[in-house]
Amino acid sequence: MTGRLGKTEIAFSEIHSQYKSSRSSKSGGSGSWHTIFKGLFFIAGFNKSFKGETYVLPEVAEKVFGKILGNMFQSWNRGRGRLVKMEDDRFEKRFVVYGDDQIEARYILSTSLMKRIADYKEKTKKNICISFINNRIYVALFSYKNLFEPKLFKTLLDFGVIREYYEDLACAVGLVDELNLNTRIWH
């Protein structure tokens, strides 16, 4: 789906991305499918201009390995730029940030935006990945539920089915308000 909400151009879709692992010819198997991502993928124009790339990913390393080892593993991840330590402890417990420009990453992830992202994660209880590239925000919201799909053998006259569609759409378009993307004081 594409459109404009206020001043913000948006596009979103349900995506199920997989890869197939091959099995050796000795086992005779045909391989198996592995999910890379399933959920809502959302793209919008961002309300600040920037040149670099910044990535916000769920915090896993510190939860699994503790603060010292977790920080060490995080700093080794060079594929997404350098580790950026943020000043918001609540945000840091939930997310890890990588970017190719430390100052720009802090400019993009203002205190209020970090709060809104952490609030959104708590509200939805879903894993969320965010990237900021080419003056756009990309949001991957993990969900194993089929979104925007009609239920076969169920009537569309059932209010519960209609409410479920509404909630799926509200989750997607609500990102504009939740992340305050229509504010354009920087342009």
Commentary on this structure:
- The chain contains five helices and eight strands; from the N terminus they run ββββαβαβααββα.
- With 187 residues, it is of the alpha+beta class.
- Helices cover 34% and strands 31% of the residues.
- It has an eight-stranded antiparallel sheet with strand order 1-2-3-8-7-4-6-5, sandwiched between helices.
Topology at a glance:
Elements: E1 2-5, E2 8-21, E3 32-45, E4 54-58, H1 61-76, E5 82-84, H2 89-94, E6 95-99, H3 102-108, H4 111-124, E7 128-133, E8 136-142, H5 159-178
Antiparallel strand pairs: 1-2, 2-3, 3-8, 4-6, 4-7, 5-6, 7-8
Quick tags:
8-stranded antiparallel sheet; 34% helix; 187 residues; 31% strand; alpha+beta
Radius of gyration: 19 Å
- Number of H- or I-type helical stretches: 5
Indicate the mean pLDDT: 79
Note the run of SSEs as H and E.
EEEEHEHEHHEEH
**Number of DSSP strand runs:** 8
Q: Note the overall shape.
A: globular
Percent strand equals 25-35%
Contiguous low-pLDDT stretches (5 residues minimum) are 61-66, 68-74
Q: What's a concise summary of this model?
A:
Helices cover 34% and strands 31% of the residues. It is built from five helices and eight strands.
